[in-house]
Amino acid sequence: MTKRSLWLLPLAATLLLTGCAGNDNADPATVESSPAPSQKQEQVSGKTLTADQVKDVVTKLVGADSTAQVLDNEVMKPQLEQAKNMTGSNGIKPEECAQQQEKYTVTDLTGTVAASATIQGDSTGKVIQVFSITDAQTRKNISEALKLSDIEGCESISVSVSGEAVNTDRQILDLDSTADQALTMATQMKVGAEQHLNSVAVQALDGNNFVLVTFSSGTVEAPLLAGEAMKLTDQAFAEIKSLQ
């Protein structure tokens, strides 16, 4: 398992709101599933972005980076549909930590308009996702999950990656955000005898918009990754507000 292959993990993780950046994206109280299709979904109050606007925000965050791959809402929709039936535990050990992960994970983000960008640099990988929420239950689920404040006893876990158990250390970082709610998780995965993958996921909710930014690197330490990820998250909300 190479560090470069692990840098791509946030692609799967960004489809989850879980407390483990390694099986990203990131993302407390029991999170309820969104209503089944046969149930009436309550629409959110307030403005939401269009598919074009969400893509525009992500594109602006990417800037002139030629390595970026931007996915619009049409591409994201089937991915989110597939992800909503996933579990958040992802082979986590010990069992009590898997239960905590499952409790504080939102996998159903189909009640959103979404866009995503992936940037794979030589030393740092980045995933930027913006979701404009279109139903009240989805917003409630995300808000509840972002209340996670303590992972005591589950700071060190084992995560299954392609069938291989990877030792992982995690911590919640206390970073200020311009958003109404934010949760920042730093993760260090042991990928070799003396090799580690550092990953930071910033998940933030403001109004009807949810932003998830994940940075991963085999050389850059978590504090620097966290600062840059939070800066990008706040920039995303500034762009969103300029459209409303």
Structure description:
It is globular and about 50 Å long. Mean pLDDT is 81; it is low at 1-40. It has helices at residues 3-7, 10-13, 51-62, 73-83, 95-103, 136-145, 222-243, and strands at residues 69-71, 112-120, 124-133, 156-161, 164-173, 181-190, 196-206, 209-217. The longest helix is centred in the C-terminal third of the chain and has 22 residues, at 222-243. Strands 1-2-3-8-7-6-5-4 form an eight-stranded antiparallel beta sheet. The termini are far apart. It is an alpha+beta fold.
Helix content: 25-40%
Strand order of the largest sheet: 1-2-3-8-7-6-5-4
| CA-based gyration radius | 17 Å
Order of helices and strands: HHHEHHEEHEEEEEH
Distance between the termini: 44 Å
Oligomeric state of shown chains? single chain
Roughly what fraction of the amino acids lie in strands? 25-35%
Q: Main sheet, how many strands, which sense, barrel? A: 8 strands, antiparallel
Q: Structural class of the secondary structure composition?
A: alpha+beta
Taken from the alpha-carbon principal axes, the silhouette is: globular
Helical stretch count?
7
Q: Which residues form runs of ≥5 with pLDDT under 50? A: 1-40
Let me know the average pLDDT: 81
Write a compact overview of the structure shown.
This protein is of the alpha+beta class. The protein has helices at residues 3-7, 10-13, 51-62, 73-83, 95-103, 136-145, 222-243; strands at 69-71, 112-120, 124-133, 156-161, 164-173, 181-190, 196-206, 209-217.
Short descriptors:
7 helices; 244 residues; globular; alpha+beta; 8-stranded antiparallel β-sheet; disordered N terminus
